[in-house]
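Practice set, problem 2.
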Amino acid sequence: MISGPHHPDSAATTVSFVVDAGSAGLRIDVFLAGQMHWRSRRWLTARLDAGAVALNGAATKKARRLETGDVVSLRVDARAEAPPAPDDPPLRILFEDDDLIVVDKPPHLPVHAASTCQHHNLLSMLQRRDAGRPFSPAVIHRLDRSTTGVIAFARRSALVPFYMAQFEHRRVRKQYTAVVHGIPDACGTIALPLLAVPGRRVVVDGGGKPSTSAWHVIARGHECAMLAVVPETGRKHQIRVHLAAIGHPIVFDDLYGRVHGRTGWPAGCGPQLHAARLELEHTDGRPHLFEAPLPPTMDASMRWVAARAAEDCLGADAAPMIGKWAGLGDGVGSARRWPSPR
């Protein structure tokens, strides 16, 4: 997990990473190389040798092994690292207070920095938005670059373990809206183990981690269906791989689905997956539910699918079916119940 609290020295800034269970046992230099893969090992070694890396606030050595929950902090020269001032688009903030900020993530925006998006990512945009405040947002979970919808950030790095523990112990509830190829059963559960392999793909494999997703059909259209999907576990690309594995890949998911042209579809359509709802415990001790409407591109494609289905089934009397699908534009309106394993 990543955060970026400002260092007291205005010429420097500190980037922090919280070690999750999957990284426990790694050496600190190996861990940093994985988290900052756009940096050379020579550069990271130099920072370690210069004492610019701390473990849980104390000096450390590069061979130190990490444990779950450790906080690794890296101090860098802000003047050397400062990006050109970007013209950030406005973000749709669903909720914010001193402890938590929840955003409706737009499509095609990475959540955090990577080699191709060191400055154009959601975390950096939030940090620039909060510049000058006594706190800085930190990542507690992720969405794929192409996925839209609800995503939450801790308002400061000290709260990352509180929120991250809820994800690790499956106390967070998430619901996604997906448009898939074909018409699946009305409801069901997918329980298939998933294994991440080199090349950033995930496959169904008996040696992978247990993974479960539940779904129910919200609406049916022209050779497509809209589903409400609840991932009971939180594996990388879980919903995308699970739906593809049962023969109903997400529309326009070119990595796991059918590679096809977008001729005739509304312009700008991407993978039809949206994080519609997120429920977690806030620092006040109560569960909070956050919801995001469908993005315009997904809403447009949904109407297009409905219109095609109406033409096939109803001829000129297309308005009822189009209206039914259009009524789902809030992304959650017809999926108030949480799908559960059956």
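Problem 2, part (b): a different protein.
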Amino acid sequence: MIVRTSPRSLRRAAFTLLEMMIVVAIIVAIAGVSATFYFSQADEGNRTKAAQEMSQIRAMAVRYKLAKGQVPGSPGVINDWKGGEVVPPQSPWRTDYSISGSDTLQDPILIHCTDNAGKTFTLSPKGMNDPYSN
């Protein structure tokens, strides 16, 4: 018995180059959209973490100011005072936190940090200023 195959069935045994290019283009487009979403969420997480850490540093700076009568210059001063790492010395962007304020009890203590884009965040008694919300 002889089985004949048509030339058309032999040609459809594989994908064409155009079909493969369309699939690759769709995958690249999906990866681009998802990467943009992922990195924006990761940066939002860093901002939230920085706000929490700045709040912790401010609380410890107020305690230091009440105990010593002066504002600590950096989180390292608070850590030395407490004898260990009580507050983080660096922000999620690997930049140093800074503490400012005067030594009088009425003046507020401000905590500052800068992200990788050069935007400065400041935590005051009124709350956090977010340079990205403007």
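Answer key, part (b): The chain has a mean pLDDT of 85. The CA atoms of residues 57 and 87 lie 6 Å apart.
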